[in-house]
Amino acid sequence: MNGTPRLTLTGPVLDAPNAAELADFYRRLLGWEAEEDEPDWVTLRSPEGAARLSFQTEPDYVRPVWPTEDGAQRMMAHLDIEVDDLDAAREHAVRTGAVVADFQPQDHVRVCLDPAGHPFCLWLRG
């Protein structure tokens, strides 16, 4: 052993005013099930088991602005979700509670905002 400990990234965590509500949106969007479900913490796991996405209640959460504006809360990260049909995926996202952002930077990408305002990108390879 070279002295470096084993490190395993288990997945991103999104803050929200209500972890359970935001997790429910992503559960419906992605079709994932809860692996952990606590009052202020929820972890979803992909059916294949390889990917996780967690949600944490943050009482002082400030909704980010997309696209960025001077003096406004900026997004710190976003999720990229590959799709096989961009229009159908956009419609599904809207049905589950997302809003399509006014600003769309690329033809093969649709930027959406989840109920807590986190941007996420639906994108089509190719």
From TrEMBL:
Signal sequence bounds: none
Residues of the VOC domain: 8-126
Recorded coiled-coil stretches: none
CDD domains tied to this protein: VOC
PROSITE patterns: VOC
Source organism, top-level taxon: Bacteria
Name of the protein in its database record: Glyoxalase
Organism: Actinophytocola xanthii
